[in-house]
Structures are given as structure tokens and as C-alpha cells.
Design brief:
- By secondary structure, the protein is α+β, with helices and mostly antiparallel strands.
- The protein has a single domain, classed as Aminopeptidase, CATH 3.40.630.30.
- Helices cover 22% and strands 40% of the residues.
- It has three helices and six strands.
- It has a six-stranded mixed sheet.
- Strand 3, helix 2 and strand 4 form a beta-alpha-beta unit.
- It starts with a helix and ends in a 5-residue tail after the last strand.
Length: 129
């Protein structure tokens, strides 16, 4: 992903980073348009350094992703989706997204493993529904 983003072979793939006052990266987000879909985007990951979680960095990164997509207009960006795991390890993650206006759209059973479902969250970029 990094190589493709840097050399330009991945179109409509975007990285955002959040750094501290010393220039160290403490958070990052990666998002891209959804292939074979009109106006839908994937937030492939968002990550914040464990010692900085809970400080608003993740929310700020999602806010920047959403702002950049909204700037493209409704002809280019209408929906943002994000996927995560159903395991206990990702329980905080599954509460993080609804606090930012995402709704759980789907669960794909046994996607990542026998006891690990894919949980898909959905958010409109053009309205509140």
C-alpha cells in the first residue's frame, strides 16, 4: 500500500498522518475509493499509538478523511465504510465508530476465522441518513 501510494500506481488511495510536536507519527489513516462501486469509499485502517489513544487523535483523523471526501462533492463521494473484527480485542473499535455517526451495516460470519466475524460500519457523507 505504501509503495503504491508513493509511486502513484494506486489511484484514489490516500494516507493521512498525525504527528506530535517533535514530528513523530502518532496516528495514521488510509482510505481509498471502493472498486466497482459508485461514490463509495473505504477507510481501510486508522491507527493511533497505544499511549495516545483516547486523546481525540482518531476522531481528528476521521474528521479529516470525511472533510477531504466531502470536498470532492456528492458525484465523487457519498458513503464511507470501515470494517473491523468482532473479537474482544476490537471491542473499543466497535464503540469508536458509532460515536462518530457510523452505523453497523453488516456482519459477515467467520470472515477472519471460525470465531471472528467482519463487522462493517457505514456513514453517509451527504446526509444524516
Amino acid at each position: 500500500m505504501v509503495a503504491g501510494a508513493l509511486n502513484g500506481t494506486l489511484k484514489d488511495h490516500h494516507w493521512l498522518v498525525h504527528d506530535d510536536s517533535f514530528g513523530a507519527v502518532i496516528g495514521a489513516a488510509y482510505y481509498a475509493s471502493e472498486p466497482f462501486s459508485g461514490r463509495m469509499w473505504n477507510l481501510y485502517f486508522i491507527s493511533v499509538s497505544p499511549d495516545r489513544q483516547g486523546a481525540g487523535i482518531g476522531g481528528a483523523l476521521i474528521g479529516r478523511v470525511e472533510a477531504q471526501l466531502r470536498e470532492r462533492g456528492p458525484d465523487a463521494a457519498q458513503v464511507l465504510i470501515v470494517k473491523t473484527s468482532s473479537t474482544d480485542q476490537y471491542a473499543r473499535t466497535r464503540t469508536f465508530y458509532p460515536k462518530r455517526g457510523f452505523v453497523e451495516e453488516a456482519r459477515v460470519r467467520r470472515f477472519y476465522g471460525p470465531d471472528d466475524n467482519k463487522v462493517v460500519f457505514w456513514k453517509s457523507l451527504t446526509s444524516t441518513t
